[in-house]
Amino acid sequence: MATIDALPDIADHVAGRVPILLDGGVRRGTDGLKALALGARAALIGRPYLWGLAAAGETGVRHALEMFRAELELAVALAGGATLGAITRSLVTPRR
Question: Can you say whether the dihedral through the CA atoms of 57, 63, 69, 71 is positive or negative?
Answer without folding.
Answer: negative
